[in-house]
Amino acid sequence: MGAQQRVFKQKIRSTQSLRKIFKAMELIAASRIQKAIARSQAASPYANALTRAVSAVASESNVDHVLTTESDNVKHAAVLVIGPDRGFAGAYSANLLREAEELIRLLHNEGKSVDLFTVGGKAKNYYTFRDRKIEKSWTGISENPTAEVAREIGEALLENFDPEAENSGVDEIYIVFTKFVSSVTHDPEYRRLLPLEVVDADEATTGGQSAGSTDASAFPLYEFEPSAEAVLDALLPRYIDSRILSALLSASASEQASRQAAMKTATDNADDLIKTYTRLANTARQAEITQELTEIVGGADALAASAAGD
């Protein structure tokens, strides 16, 4: 076997090994995405009911609550960036971080300082590499988020939320995540968590009812006991936790869908490379055979000429 054939054979073996890894990761992502979608749908009824209750309190009562009243002089914002812990998901991380940078740029242009909170190793490494201060980060939970982690994140975000503070309080809280629409569509976006923006249940969660349906637009009648302020004090932290958990689950499904698509593309590219290297190896083999035949024929002619001269 010639040198060229050995090179192409080695490349074929290496590409075949990579293809096995890509195919395995594609199958794993395909199985996990269904579980992530199921978890997101299972969490929707609670999030829908909680969103409707909070919206009813905020819209049907004249309560001047710290979590629902916008400050006249907003100077400080907190931004939670929900990213993946692992790579091999195509442009998923890049698109998310681009959306986060756009939000941070807009906040800076409005004269607001920003506190960063991150979920996932990719977002943490991105800002750490650029010497950007991170107030708190959570890693190792992007693929399997839990309600306990969402509650911990919510408590950390609410800890410094105080629009009435002159210098140290946080006036606004934003969340940046990737919204899962379908297996082929998942869009990065940002939303303001606080001060509360009254939204329909479908907008607050992934997989809710359509925004134009009767059930999504009509609030039931509530009586607030002991008072609307006490109800808001109890509901709003839970509302924030449910919004964060919904975003975590949506981001988890989006991550798996992106990884499945990326690994499918990588597997197809590996197949194309194997075909290309196989053709090149066959071409090199034919060239070597032709060269050997040419040398044999040339040697035979030289011997025949030498014998005829004698």
Written overview of the protein:
- This protein folds into 2 domains: 3-24 and 263-298, Helix Hairpins; 31-260, Pyruvate Kinase, Chain: A, domain 1 (3-Layer(aba) Sandwich).
- Helix content is 61%, strand content 11%.
- It has 7 helices and 5 strands, in the order H-E-H-E-H-E-H-E-E-H-H-H.
- It has helices at 3-60, 92-109, 121-129, 147-159, 201-204, 214-217, 228-309; strands at residues 76-82, 113-119, 136-138, 172-180, 186-194.
- The protein has a 5-stranded mixed beta sheet with strand order 3-2-1-4-5, sandwiched between helices.
- A hairpin with a 5-residue loop joins strand 4 (172-180) and strand 5 (186-194).
- Helix 1 (3-60) runs antiparallel to helix 7 (228-309) and helix 4 packs across helix 7.
- The longest helix is centred in the C-terminal third of the chain and has 82 residues, at 228-309.
- The relative contact order is 0.19.
List keywords for this structure.
7 helices; 5 strands; 310 residues; elongated; alpha/beta; Helix Hairpins; five-stranded mixed sheet; Pyruvate Kinase, Chain: A, domain 1
Break the fold down into its secondary structure elements and pairings.
Blueprint: H1 3-60, E1 76-82, H2 92-109, E2 113-119, H3 121-129, E3 136-138, H4 147-159, E4 172-180, E5 186-194, H5 201-204, H6 214-217, H7 228-309
Parallel strand pairs: 1-2, 1-4, 2-3
Antiparallel strand pairs: 4-5
Helix pairs in contact: 1-7, 4-7
